[in-house]
Each structure stands twice: as structure tokens, then as C-alpha cells.
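Summary for the steering committee. The consortium agreed at its last meeting that each partner would contribute one worked example illustrating the joint modelling workflow. Our contribution is presented below. We chose a case with several input lines so that the handling of multiple components could be demonstrated. No manual editing was applied between input and output; the record is shown as generated.
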Amino acid sequence: MSNSGLSSVVESRRLNALLAGTLLLFLAIAALGQFLDGDLEWAGFTAAVLAIGLVPPVARRRPTAMLPWEVLSIAAFPIVLRALVAGETVGGMTFSGRIVTYVAVAAAALLIAVELDVFTTVKMNHRFAVVFVVVTTMAASGIWAVVRWLSDVLVGTRFLYDGDPSTSSRRR
Amino acid sequence: MWDFVAATVAGAFAGVFFEYYFRRHARLISRIPEATPAEYPDDGDVEAARDNAGEHGARRSVEEVKDP
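What follows is the complete predicted structure of the assembly.
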């Protein structure tokens, strides 16, 4: 990479901490907004992403120990996108925000992978790094489904089960 | 079932992005002082890269230090 002014700005420690802190603040506000809006499913997901993002500065007790702002913006992107497109109808097609969910789960897995790679002594070779993110995404997707199911069973939400016994078995 | 397949495909893209951007090009060690040098094969190279890193980041990459 060239030694340009742009690269020095992008690689600034203070700027990284500032941008990452701003994105974490945005996630906190988004989680609160979703909770107040009654969107408990996404409020929980956003809070989980926020919690993952807060681990390094809390564990190291230093505000500069932030994740790279790029990975936090990737994690925040699906949350913004869903707020913009979910329920919108374009050309007779209504966006459900389902594709955004896949992106969000992969972004959460990417967050965990970058966190482990940057802040721990974990060593990964190139192939394993790719496989690790894929497996973490699958794990996150499974945990997400289990959490939704547990919420339906224990709290009485309707994330997976729509209340009609005749459709619950046919959906899978 | 298809949700998991779609999430896995998204994860594959995320994995490639992780390897090619965050591990190879982002030079995170220069802007996150608390970062551990585990991603590099040789800690000596990382120390040399750290020595060349100023407040605004590394002036030379690890690859440049290895092969000046």
C-alpha cells in the first residue's frame, strides 16, 4: 500500500477508535429503538452484535482496543438495510428482510473471527481462516434459530410458530 | 433448511473477505495497539513492523520488512 495521506488517515489509531465507538453507539441506539418498536427479535440480535463489539474494550479496559471500524460497519449494515427495506413494496414485490438476515448472521460471524484474530493468540492458516468463518456462520445461524424457538416456547413470541398447529409441521 | 444453506453461502463470502481483506490488507496491527501478532507467521517480523509504526500507522508493511 502506498504511503499516502489517505492510508495514514485510514490507519490512524484514534480515528479507528472514534469510528468504532460511534458505530457501537449507533448499535445501542438501534437496539433500544427496535425494542421500543416491539421488534424484539432484531433488538436481541442487535444487542448481541453490540455485546460482541464491546468485548475487546471492556476486557482490555482501554477505549482504543476497538475492533476495526470496517467490520463494525459491516455488522451494522444489515441492521440499517433491514430498517430501510423490510416491508417495502417495489414493483409489486414486498421485501421481507429475509436475505438481510443471512447477511447479518454472516456479519456477526465475521465479527467474532476478526475479534479472535486480532485480540487473541489464535493462529489460523489461510484455508482454515475461511473455513472458520463459514463454520462460525453456520453455528451462529443455528444458535439464532434455537434462540427464536426458545423464545416462542418460553416467552410466547411467534417468531417461528405462527399459532396454527396445522401449518407448523408443514413449514419444515 | 434453505435458511441454513443461504447463511452458509453468505458465510463463505464472509470467510473469503476475512482472509483477503482483514488478514492480508487491512494492516490492523498499526492502528490497534492492543492487537496481538498471532496472525503473522514470524513474531520477529511483526516487531520490526511495530518499530516502523507511528501514531498514524505502519509506514512499511510486514512484507516490506521481510524483503526490504
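DSSP finds seven helices and two strands in chain A. The two ends of chain A are 49 Å apart (CA to CA).
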